[in-house]
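User: I'm writing a tutorial on reading structure tokens. Could you give me a worked example: one chain, its sequence, then its tokens, then a sentence or two explaining what the tokens reveal?
Assistant: Sure. Here is the example chain.
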Amino acid sequence: MSQAPSDKRIVASLSGELSQSPIARKEQVLYSHLIEGLTEYAVFALSPQGLILSWNAGAEKTFGYTADEVLGKPFDIIFTAEDRASGAPQNELDTALNGAATQHDRWHVRKDRTRFWGTNTIETLYDESHKFIGFTKLVRDTTVNHLALQKVHDSEQEFRLLFESVKDYAIFSTALDGTIEKWNAGATALFGYDSMDMIGHNYCELFSSEDRADGIPQCELDNASTVGSALVERWMKRKDGSRFFGSGKLTQLNPDLDGTKRGFVKITHDMTELHAALEHERKWSTTFQRAVLPAGLPLITGLLTDAIYQPGSEDAQVGGDWYDTVRLPDGRILVSIGDVSGHGLEAAVVVGVIRQIVRGIAQLHADPALILDAADQALSLEYPDVYVTAWVAVLDQVMHTITYACAGHPPALLRGADGTLRELDRAHGLPIGLRGGRLGSAQTVPWLNGDTLVLYTDGLIEAYRDILAGIARLNEVVGKVAFEAWDNPAEQIKHLVIPNGSPDDVAILVLRVDFDLFERQVDRWRLDTLNAAAASDLRNRFTASLPSGKFSAADTADAELVMGELIGNVVRHAGNSSEADVAIDHSGPRTVVHVLDSGGGFSYISRLAPDLFSEEGRGLFLIAAITSDFHVDIRPHGGSHARAVLRDRSSVYVLEASQ
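And here are its predicted structure tokens:
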């Protein structure tokens, strides 16, 4: 039997022979209180033969036995049947007597026969004279920790089996600097290197020399360190020098418990065939989509325009983004931008369809809300499984207004000449194809000299993980770009907002108005409709304003007749209003004339008069008959807006009158 270690705490015998020393009894009382207070630990004493001599509250809680039930009984009642059969209880006692390691982790049994994993220690016990009197045993329920560790162990084992069994994917792990530490059979099959070739080498050797020179491997490591993982699709090289297009994610392992950073796991597979197929479709989709986008933006006096379209960098297929700007026959400007759901050739085809629908409806009735409603009906019939977000506006340089409607698209930004920024919001419009017959609405806002309108698709702001951060960045950039210099502002916005590109397609359209330049091409008058002499003088000035080289005598006579009918219509229908503002726009190939008053207002679209012998409506029918186009709209704040396209020798001119 070994001697009691000199540093072991000597306690009073628990066999009944208590010390008579007052100090010893005091220590024993304190010790007993301490033991009883350990309710989360089972603490009890054993005789040299292994009989239970004491049993604290923690033991009762842990095992379910009361002290009366276990005192004097062998302590093997807390062992499993397997451990009792193997002699584990006696082995614990012998181990403690021999002074060896005394901690044992094993399954224990409660009174109700349930099991728990217990971490326990057993030590020898001596009295004041160093006489061996038994053992002390401490047991703690560590089932939760044990099961968690077992789960980790099982997971690691499963990972090792998976790591080695996956043949179609190259899986390898690296240190923080990219040095390869593990290499599976799939990596050998894909790259041609066995584990001895690669372990200890940096994984950058798997990249092409061009990518290594550009620092792509280090960028991948840096990105994975920053955000946790990085997806890279690159051409990679095999041992025999051949290349394949690999798609793989590099993921950083969770740090150690002390916070120390760990390395990475890389999973790569061969996508060469799929990449070739997607590139083929991408080529055709891109070609088709660029064909349906405008070849160039129209040259419009007083309006600077710039646009850019960039296919997404992540998806191998082209998306369905578009932008458009067109001058309508009456001189107003139609602008639109949108995004078709999906990718590939079908999305590009739908872009062409929607763009032509928008243009076609605008030729008949330039109301953005009506345009979107018509597009919704057409798309629902032809492509019921596709939806489109869009933002459409009609810009009126003469009226200085922007009338717009939205179909679930990000709002346009209107930047004032003073740098103020305003969102032209969504106006609660659903995307085209999802409206289900619900009609949209249009809004009209003032258009001031020097204002810049910025339209964009969501690829510009969704490149950020946080879309609100993307919107904030866009607003910041639009507020800072010097539009006055007009040096490719659309490209500047793209570069400043998404310098590394976007996984989705991006379209940007920028328009800036210069009314000072535009007004040089406009004649404006105010007419007293009750003053016959003033009307005659206006007629003469109107005739003089018509370009003589374009209008024949007959054309001029027709134009005078149109003007007379329009002014007469104002006199007859404008109510108490006795004044009209007239403006003639010569800024483009079509001349646009406005006559404005504050009458009751009415609408008219060119059509055959219901009764050819009736005086009612015959004047408007006459105007429609001798012009290329004519219709009347109600102005937002009262009055009517009539537009007529005059016939001339070389082209169609527009006479536009607002009443």
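What the tokens reveal: Residues 205 and 212 are 8 Å apart (CA to CA). The longest strand covers residues 115-126.
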